[in-house]
Amino acid sequence: MIEMQARVVAVEDGMALVEPMSGGSCSSCSSSAGSTPSAGCGADKIGQIFTIKTKNYRVINAISSRIGDEVIIGIEDGAVLRGSAVVYMLPLILIFIGAITAHYLMPNINADLASIIGAASGFTISALWLFRFNQHASRNPHYQPVILRNAHAGTFILKEVKR
């Protein structure tokens, strides 16, 4: 599970809008196991260079968090890779299959024109399938980040009481 700390900025019907806490890395990959507190791959720092304002992300609010709560959000290992493979590889594969199939199924048409028609058909089919996949994945915790727990759950704060 890839985890990161965030602050809840809005809540609506089972979803929450969160803002990642600055200065932290996801602390989940092997590159964050270094001895320095800011160890990690640095992807969050590189991302901050190219963005002017802080980003807010929509996540599944599994623990009914409220605005202002500091929480730990997480996404399953491999979910990003699976989602990327579907979004990038499926259209490419269907474009090639469509172009090759149309080239052989339409021998009476110019070979280039048949390939273009087949590629466009493959792309259209993949776009329709990706639209349905996106609707399914938008609330599926296997593909979406989820609020796992409060960031300070189990933390005790001791205060000195003056008498």
UniProtKB/TrEMBL annotation:
The chain crosses the membrane at residues 85-105, 111-131. Keywords: Membrane, Transmembrane, Transmembrane helix. InterPro entries: RseC, SigmaE_reg_RseC_MucC. The keyword Transmembrane applies. It comes from the Bacteria. PANTHER family: PROTEIN RSEC. This is Sigma factor RpoE regulatory protein RseC. It comes from Sulfuriferula nivalis.
